[in-house]
Write a structure and sequence with these properties.
By secondary structure, this protein is of the alpha/beta class. The chain has a single domain, classed as 4-Layer Sandwich (Metallo-beta-lactamase, Chain A). About 20% of the residues lie in helices and about 30% in strands. Strands 6-5-4-3-2-1-14 form a 7-stranded mixed beta sheet, with helices on one face. Strands 7-8-9-10-11-12-13 form a 7-stranded mixed beta sheet, covered by helices on one side. Helix 3 links the parallel strand 5 and strand 6. Bound molecules: nickel (II) ion and manganese (II) ion. The site of nickel (II) ion (NI) has 6 residues, from loops.
Length: about 230
């Protein structure tokens, strides 16, 4: 029993849980780090943390091609539903049982306007309790907040955190986030894509492993990590 996490660069992830394919923040077109095209990725479900174009990305075209169910907040779901996409709306603090597991929306300190300027509601992270038993926290774009401690109380196997700085937590605050969340494993994302979010992820990994019990897994775009 395991979850396979594939990083496609920036904040784009592919999860495989018992043959189900779940895309998170599917930004392929225009993503300088993406090793694959939006035309070929598989999706049964698409999770969107917030409305910014580097997160909603290719969600519309992938959802139309694959028939995937889009899961996000109510505002983003309504925006996509009006364009002919199947959606399931949730909101902060609420969870729902899907075939792949129980998914809860968590708070994120960020913005969420949609590409056409529409209101995208509150940005979110995801706390996933996979059907296979593992618990993963996908923080989304966020600054550090103290209630990460409450999320950590649930017992996190893997935390996927932004470390890019400028738009989200930088390396120092992401280390503080690790101390609040106390995950067994961590993967850094949302860095290296643009000039203003260049970071030394290997240096961050050394800091985390020197000061906490968390193991950091550095992926190159297209590489996968198996959480089991
Ligand atoms: Ni954003
Ligand atoms: Mn972003």
């Amino acid at each position: 029993m395991a979850i396979k996490f594939t990083w496609y660069g920036h904040a784009t992830l592919g999860l495989e849980i018992e043959k189900q394919h779940i895309l998170v923040d599917p930004y392929f077109s225009g993503n300088p780090l993406s090793p694959v095209s939006a035309d070929v990725v598989r999706a049964d479900f698409i999770l969107i943390t917030h409305g910014h174009s580097d997160h909603i990305g290719d969600a519309l075209t992938i959802a139309k091609r694959t028939g995937a169910l889009v899961i996000s907040n109510a505002e983003i779901c309504n925006w996509l539903k009006a364009k002919g996409v199947k959606t399931h709306a949730q909101h902060l603090g609420g969870g729902y049982n899907y075939p792949f597991g129980y998914l809860k929306l968590t708070m994120a300190l960020h913005g969420s306007s949609l590409p056409d300027g529409s209101y995208g509601g509150n940005p979110a992270g995801f706390l996933l309790t996979a059907k296979t038993g593992e618990k993963a926290y996908l923080a989304g774009d966020t600054g550090l907040f103290g209630d990460m401690r409450l999320i950590g109380e649930e017992g996190i196997n893997l935390a996927v955190l932004p470390i890019g700085d400028n738009y989200t937590m930088g390396p120092a605050d992401a280390l503080r986030a690790i101390k609040l969340l106390q995950p067994k494993h961590a993967i850094p994302i949302h860095f290296g894509t643009f000039d203003v979010i260049q970071q030394d992820a290997a240096a961050w990994a050394r800091q985390v492993e020197a000061h906490t019990d968390t193991l950091v897994h550095l992926l190159k775009p297209g590489e996968s990590y198996l959480l089991s």
